[in-house]
Each structure stands twice: as structure tokens, then as C-alpha cells.
TrEMBL record:
This is APC family permease. PANTHER family: AMINO ACID TRANSPORTER-RELATED, INNER MEMBRANE TRANSPORT PROTEIN YBAT. InterPro entries: AA/rel_permease1 (IPR002293), APC_superfamily (IPR050367). The chain crosses the membrane at residues 33-54, 60-78, 111-134, 161-180, 196-215, 284-303, 336-358, 406-425, 446-469, 475-495, 516-535. It is a multi-pass membrane protein. The lineage of its organism: Bacteria, Pseudomonadati, Pseudomonadota, Betaproteobacteria, Burkholderiales. It is found in: Cell membrane. Keywords: Cell membrane, Membrane, Transmembrane, Transmembrane helix. GO terms for molecular function: transmembrane transporter activity. GO terms for cellular component: plasma membrane. Coiled coil: none annotated. It holds the Pfam family AA_permease_2.
Amino acid sequence: MAIGVLAPVDQVHEASQPSEHHELKRTLSWKDAFWVTSGVPAGVLFTIGGVSSTIGTPAWIIWIAAILIGFAQSFVYAEISTLYPHKSGGASIYGALGWVRYSKMVAPVSVWCNWLAWSPMLAMGTSLAAGYMLSSLFPPDSVINTWKLTLLDLNFVTKGLTLRVNSTFILATLFLLVTFKLQHAGASAAATTQRILGIASLTPLVVIALVPLITGDMPSTNFLPLLPLTHDASGAAVMGGWNAAGISTAMGAMFLACWSTFGFETAVCYTREFKDPQKDVFKAIFWSGVLCLFMFIAVPIAFQGELGLAGMLKPEIIDGSGVGAAMAKFVGGGRVMFNVVVVMLVLAILLIVMTSMMGSSRTLYQASVDGWLPRYLSHVNEHGAPTRAMWTDLGFNLILLLMSDYMAILSVSNVCYMIFVFLNLQSGWIHRLDRADWPRAYRCKNWLLALGALCGYIDLVFVGAGANFQGEHTLRNGLLTALLIVPVFIYRHYVQDKGRFPASMKRDMELPCAKAGVLPYIALAAAVLVVWVAFRLTVIT
């Protein structure tokens, strides 16, 4: 499919250049990006109970498998990122440029799905942090913890979903505004804050991971037998077997675990702001991946070893509200220790919120500069911060904060995330075919490139088979949400830009010929088939 005409510079200047001539600044080293990304391990707090409630005792195996897949995929992201040292926005931006030669519509879907995966973390993170604070200060049955004002019933979207205002919404909004303020001064200043928060907030996770390993207080019965949970006729959880229902359950757990473990790919969001992108990109994502390898293996093992399956299935662990109390018990101590752990958990969660805002706002910014999203998002302030994109993130998440079911938000956003992951992993070999002669600071081995492409299809199996374990119609809602970008792109490309891409995209899009030929279309057709077959073979008990 033709990629369209490139507009003359004077016709697209406004679209291709940040307003007021401010630009992102090259002030970051790979260490700064590492500390920005150090918030990702806190994502385990959101889903550790959910994974256990889905699969049961084999949860620790699920976490190991998920982070190993995420680590294998990161090498493909590293290569495609070094092709575009002049761009920000992360892997989705670089991957979109591989697909645009073959379809105008697939490329913006990739960018959109990446943003939809990261941006809701602002609402989910601040709401969880607010919940920790309120539960530590007030009894569960106090008025401040129980009052709410229902604004709208959204039962037609997901059963039990409403828009409401409560104390969590108010406190979470304050956290969001503080996060926004911290990043208004640009990435360099924010990275300094991230480093401080990272050291403070990762400490409890590291301690929790190491204490049980050192003391040896982890009975083998908490990890065995490796049999999945299923449900009997009454809906009660029972030990099952590795039949169709058991394998389907494992797919549901992998779907949830991948949402947390894949997130360190955000380390490549700052390519345009690295002092030396040719060296910093690979170091940033590799060492972020090493950190996540340790945290996403050690922390779930420590939790399961300490609590056992019965403890992991408690409602307060599943929804995350009791994680702080459980962590305090791991290290001993009374009320004082509990409050210290809660404060450190709040810092950990605010760290991942800052990570999300920095990454997702830069995705919006670069997508606007490249012609995927409306022009107004391409503005940056005098500090090099994409403030209009940040305000958009803020407004979107204020709406999400009104929603009563954050797990529904997470699950739908994860369908979108896995679509992005698939498209970007396939863009690795598309780039290798179409841009074989382009300079690359890092070139992954051919077998890693092939493994990444294979992982993309495995991820789609998790989507097709596992999404609806997190709620009825999750797969449908996620696919529909992914398509919301189409009218937005049509407006930008055909109304604002008259069917032409910004002139700044010329070097990135022009190729002598599309060497990948029909292979990208075959890859898309195979992707649809994989999701459909996985969905049809799934057994949910």
C-alpha cells in the first residue's frame, strides 16, 4: 500500500516542529533512563494476587516465564531504537515506521496501543497509592473509606462498572497533580527525582525478596504441586489438571503477568533525549531488563513462599489493598513498621506513575510530530517537557480514576499492549529487510530476531486464550478500543495534513523498494488466525 505524498516543508512546518521552537533536550544518560524505568518492578504489586488467583500454585513459574519472554523481546526493541536516534516516544514509534510502508492504518494502531497500555498506569497507580494511605490512616469501616457518589452506570461495558467519586479519587488526583508538577521541569530534573524515589522505593521490594531466601522460611508445599486452579459447579476454586481447562488457565495468568513484566521497554522512550543515543539505548534497556529479571522472579517467589496459596488467594492480596500489611509481616514489627512499609510502597507506586507519565507523554508527542495524532500534542515547553501531551494524559486519567473497576481497565489496556508488542516484534525483521544498510549501534543476533518474532505470536495466544479470564468481553472491548485511533488518524492525516506526511518524515519513510514484499500482510493474517484459534480453544470454568 502506498505511503502517501510528503508535504513541502512550509505546508507541514507546524505539524512537524514543536511549537515555539522548543525541542526535547539531550540531557539524559543511560543511567538516568535506568532510574526512570526502575519504577517498572512496582507493577508486580498490581497483579501478584491476580496471577495467583488465576493459576494457583504454579504462579511462580508463570512469573519466571513472563519475564524471560519480556527479556528476550527487548533485544529487538534495542535494535529498532538505534535506527532512529533523532526520535522520542519509544518502541511503538520506531516499529510504526517499519509498518507504514505497508499500511497507513497499522502504524498508528501500534502507537495508539502502546499509549493505551501505559497511560492508564497513572490512574491505577495513584488509586492504589491512595488506597494504601487511606487504609493506614483510617479504619476500613470509617466514613472516609466508605462514602461514594455514583455518577454513571457503565454496566453495559463491564458488569458492575460505574463512574463514581470517593476519597480514593480525591487523594489520587492530588498524587497525579504532584507527579505532573515534578515533570514540568523536563526529563533531566524528573530523572533526578526518579533516582531518589527509586532507591527509596525499591528497598522494600529488595528486602522482601531477600529475607525469605536468607531465612529459608519457604516451605516447598507453598510451591507444589504444580497443578492449576479450576472451578467446580458451585464456582469454588479447586485443584485441577493440565487438561484444556488447566492450559487455558495458564494462558489467563500469562496474559496478566506479561502486563507487568514487559514494561521495561519504556527505557527506549528517551532516545531523542540521550546524550549519546548510539551507546545509551542498549545499555538502558539491557540493565533495566536485568533489574526486572531479578525483581519479577524474586518478589513473587518470596510472596508465595511466605503466604502460601491460601494467603495469596485472600481478597486483600488479590485486589492489592493488603499487600502493604503482608510485606510488613515479612520483616516483622508492629504499627510503626507497617506505616514505614506503606510510605515506601506509596513511593514505589508513585515511581511507576512517573515512569508512565514520562513514557506515555513522549509517545503522544512524537506521534503528533510524525503525523499520527493531532498537531496540538507536538508542543514542548522551555524545559523540553511535552506539556500538552502531559495534560492530555492527566485529563484522560482523571476520567479513568472515576471508574470503579481498575482491573477492567488493566485488562482492556493489556489487550492493546499485546497488539503493540506483536506489531513491534514483527517490525524488527521488516526493518532488517527494508533497511538492511542503515547504520545500527546495536544489531541483535538473527536467532534473537527470529525468537522475538515468535514471541509476538506466543503473546497473541495469551490474548486470545487468556483475556476473558479477567472478565467477560475483555477481548472484544480491547480490540474495539485498539480501533479508536482510526478516526483520529483519519482526521489528522486526511483533514489536517491533506493526505501528506510531515516533511520531517521523509528520511524515515523513503525507501528504494519494499523488500519485505507480502510478508507483513501474511504476518497480519497469521496473527488474526492465532487469536481466533486460541479464543475458540479456550475453556473457562
